[in-house]
Amino acid sequence: MSTDMTSAKPSHTVEKIGGTSITATNTVFDNVLIGGRSGADLYGRLFVVSAYAGITNLLLEHKKTGEPGVYASFIDDTDGEGWMAALARVEAAMCERNGTVFGDSLSRRIADAFVAERIQDVRDCLSDLHRLRGHGHFRLAEPLAAVREMLAGLGEAHSAHNTALLLRDRGVNGRFVDLTGWRDTTQRSLDERILSGLEGIDLATCLPIVTGYAQCREGMVARYDRGYSEMTFSRAAVLTGAAEAIIHKEFHLSSADPRVVGEEQARKIGRTNYDVADQLANLGMEAIHPRAGRGLRQSKIPLRVKNTFDPADDGTLICGDYVSDRPKVEIVTGLRNCTALEFFEQDMVGEKGYDAAILEALTRHKVWIIAKSSNANTITHYLWSGGTPVRRVVEELETRFPNADIATHDVSIASIIGSDLNEPGLAAQALSALGGAGINVLGMQHQVRTVDIQFVVARDQFDRAIKALHQSLVEPAVDQPAVMAA
C-alpha cells in the first residue's frame, strides 16, 4: 500500500459487512458506507464484504437445511444435469440482485457481464472435471476441494464488485479488491494474498471493497468453513495496523435472543472482552470467529459490533483487557440441539487411555465439543452435533471398548456468561431461578475461571431456561438500554 499505516499511530478502521446487511443495500449505504459523510470523511476505512444473503447456500449447500447447492449437486451428480441447473439458479439469483440494486442503468449491464463471465468460467471448469471423473484413472479429491473454494469466492466477488460500482455511481472512489485468486496461478499464503491485493492503495483517497473470501494455499473454506470472511477481515485489520475493527450485523450483540426473552427485556451488552466472545463462539452465537478474534486480541485491536439498522448507536466494544466494574451476567445464551455422549466403564478407575480414545474418535469424525465432565467411571461429552457423526463415534467406541456402556441423550445447554461472574451465590441464584420455572437441571459446568456457567436441560425446556435465567440475573440491572427492533 502506498500509505505506510503501521509507522504512525493508526487512524483507519477495517470494517466487515455481513450478508444480511449487504443485502439491505440502500440501508447499508445510508447508514454505513456513506452515512452522511462527504469529502475526506468518506475514506480512511477498508470494507470486507460477505456474499449477499442466500448466495453461498446456492453455491455450496444450505447451511441449516443441507439442501444442495452447486457444489453438493456436483458431488452427487452423475449425468451433469443437476449441477448445471444449480449453477443456472445461482446466475439467475445474482442477476436478479443486480436488477434490485442497479435498476436499469449502465452499471446493471456491467454487473451482469461480470456475473456472466464468472459463471461461464465455473461452468467450463466443472464441465472439464465432470468429463475427467468419468474415467476411473483420475482421483479428484484435491480438485473437488479446490472447486468448493472457487465456488465460495464467487459469492463475495459478486457483492464486492457491485458495492464498488455503486460507490462510484455515487461519486465515491470505491475500489473492488478481488482476493479470490480468479485466473491467478500463484499460490500465496492468506497474508500474502491480502497484502498483494491492497498494494498501492491509499486509504486517504480510496475506499477499498474487499472480497470476504481470499484464495490461499491453506484453503479458506477447508480451514474456517463459513467463517472465512471474518478471517479475511481480521487479517486485514492486523496487517494494516487498524485502529479499530468493526463488524456491521443486522442486530445488536444482546444479553439474550430478543425473540426468546422479548425485545423490551433484552439489553445491548455495550462492552465486554475477547474471553466472552470466545464463549459465545463455542455456543454458536458468534460475535466473531474464534481464530479471527485471536489475531485482533494479540494485536491489541479492539473489535466493535454495530447494528447496521441502528447507526446512531456505538454498538458493543470488545477489548482484551476489559472486565466489568462489578460481577454481573452479561449474556444468557446456549444451544438448543446438543447431544450428551455418556461413556460408562466400571473398570475405568485408575486406568488411563479412555479419555484420549474418546477425544480421538470425536476429532476424527469432526464433532464439535462444547463441554465435558467426568467422575470415577463416567466421561460425558456435550456435543454440538447429532445424527450420523455421533452414531459413527458410538460405533467406533463400542468396537474398541466392548465392556463399556455408551449412551446418547438429546439435551440443551443454557449458559450465563460475563467478563466477571465472581459473585458469591450466583450459581445458587441461577439454580433457584431454573427450579422456580420448573426446570430440571441434568448437569452443570462451572469452571474455576469465572467467565461462564453452563446448565444442561431437556430440549423442550430450553427457551424457558433462557428466559428464567435472564429474568433473574439480567433484567433487574438497568444499566443498559433495551434492544430495539430493526
Keywords:
486 residues; 2 domains; VC0802-like; 6-stranded antiparallel sheet; 18% strand; alpha/beta; single chain
Task: Provide an overview of this structure.
This protein is of the alpha/beta class and 486 residues long. Helices cover 41% and strands 18% of the residues. The protein has two domains: 13-250, Carbamate kinase (3-Layer(aba) Sandwich), CATH 3.40.1160; 331-473, VC0802-like (2-Layer Sandwich). Strands 3-4-2-1-5-7-8-6 form an eight-stranded mixed β-sheet, sandwiched between helices. Helix 4 runs antiparallel to helix 5 and helix 5 packs antiparallel against helix 6. The longest helix is centred in the N-terminal third of the chain and has 29 residues, at 141-169. It is globular. It starts with 12 loop residues before the first strand and ends in a 13-residue tail after the last helix. 42% of the residues are buried. The model is unreliable at 2-7 (pLDDT under 50).
